[in-house]
Amino acid sequence: MSRSRIASGIALTALAAGLGGCSLVLGFDEGAAPSVPADVAGGADAVASPGLFAGTCTELLPVGLTEAEALSDETLLLGSVLPLSGELGPYGPGMRDAVHLAVQEINQSGGIFGRELAVLSCDSATSPETATEATLHLAGLGVPAIIGPAGSTITIEAFQNAAHDAGVLLISPSATSP
After folding, report:
1. Which residue among 8, 121, 146, 156 has its CA within the 20 to 30 Å range from the CA of 28?
2. SS3 label, residue 100
């Protein structure tokens, strides 16, 4: 397991602790590695246009971090796809605030393996299509893991239509479908 995957797992575990538990588990086929497109596998060096900010992905944490810093080797960039608008919009800001707090606490403690943690925040708009688009964008940036989406149907669709083939881990704060 690569150091980046371990770091992502540690970061997501810490973030998940602040967001609460979920019971929906989606996985990769037993023994089969996901197919990761070359532009995703390359990580920050393979970032293609339109750049870091696109669609509903408009906020970078920690506040004040530049795009160049977020994409540098000194930073572990993750994504979040949470409902900041739409039907679940009233619940999204609390989830986003939990991510803010976790990023702040992790970075104040020295980051992950000495790398600062950053999160590119996207609005799912409580829509499977919007969440899938945001997940595709984040996967294209090379993020190894995403916090969200919220809601089982949205999470399942984003996983099946974007995260699975890119090999991106999703951890939802509120997907509870058995």
Report:
1. 121
2. helix
DSSP per-residue letters across 105-155: HHHHTT-BTTBEEEEEEEE-TT-HHHHHHHHHHHHHHT-SEEE---SHHHH
Contact, 138 vs 79, CB < 8 A? Answer: yes
**Cβ–Cβ < 8 Å for 137, 162:** no
Cβ proximity of 103 and 117 under 8 Å: yes
pLDDT at 46: 37
Report the mean per-residue pLDDT for the chain: 82
**Euclidean distance between CA atoms 53 and 141, whole angstroms:** 10
Q: What is the mean pLDDT of residues 106-113?
A: 95
pTM of the model: 0.78
Residue 164 has pLDDT above 60, yes or no: yes
The letter for the amino acid at 41 is A
